[in-house]
Request: fold
Amino acid sequence: MKNIKKLALGFVMALGLLSGAQASGGDAIAWDKAPNKTNDLAALQNGAKLFVNYCLNCHSAAFMRYNRLKDIGLTEQQIKDNLLFATTKVGDTMKAAIDPAQAKEWFGKNPPDLTLMARSRAGHGGTGADYLYTYLRSYHRDDTKLTGWNNLAFPNVGMPNPLWELQGEREPVYEDKEEHGHTVQIFKGWKQVKPGTMTPLQYDQAIGDLVGYMQWMAEPAQNTRVRIGVWVLIFLSIFTFIAWRLNAAYWKDIK
Reply:
């Protein structure tokens, strides 16, 4: 019995130390809710442009072909004129221009494929879109890191902020708070250090477009599947009613 009490006490203390460490370091911030833009064609088109210009330099989307962008309202000519590199064809998959060996040397490992990232990053904090929306808005300058950047949603991240020109430079603001006899720092918000080419509101809207595109890219048929599912449920409801009335008519004279 004593051993069980000791184990329980040790478990509770470990949880307290872990939560204190996360609060003091600014880790594990709550994920912000990402706007749902998978049905907004203009937002998806802008997100595709941002993805090609800022993400595809290092990250591939090897399970997505450029010609699939026709599903979000782009013509083949628009894809060729605005989203393709010199030697890329419309039927090609979205492969990064960076050499994998060089990427591993620069970043420590080859940047991951982003095709399914919006689905794979779902967790207790929310959906994968929520994580990406929070992550891309949580970069801040950190001179202790080799890249000069860090991220509150992904502490010690190896990738610098790819959108820093748009967002500018920010630093997190903390508030000291007493918890269990210790002073911890609670994340309260952001302070703009250097402005970017976008205002904070414009940047958040752009990230919403980018995340919406990545969410759509992870499952392009999602909206079609949902629409078909609604009609299937309506059909089953009507058929169930008809079957119920037929059953009543068939058995009404049988006791």
Q: What stands out?
A: The radius of gyration is 25 Å. Confidence is low (pLDDT under 50) at residues 1-27. The first helix runs from residue 2 to 25. DSSP finds nine helices and six strands in the chain.
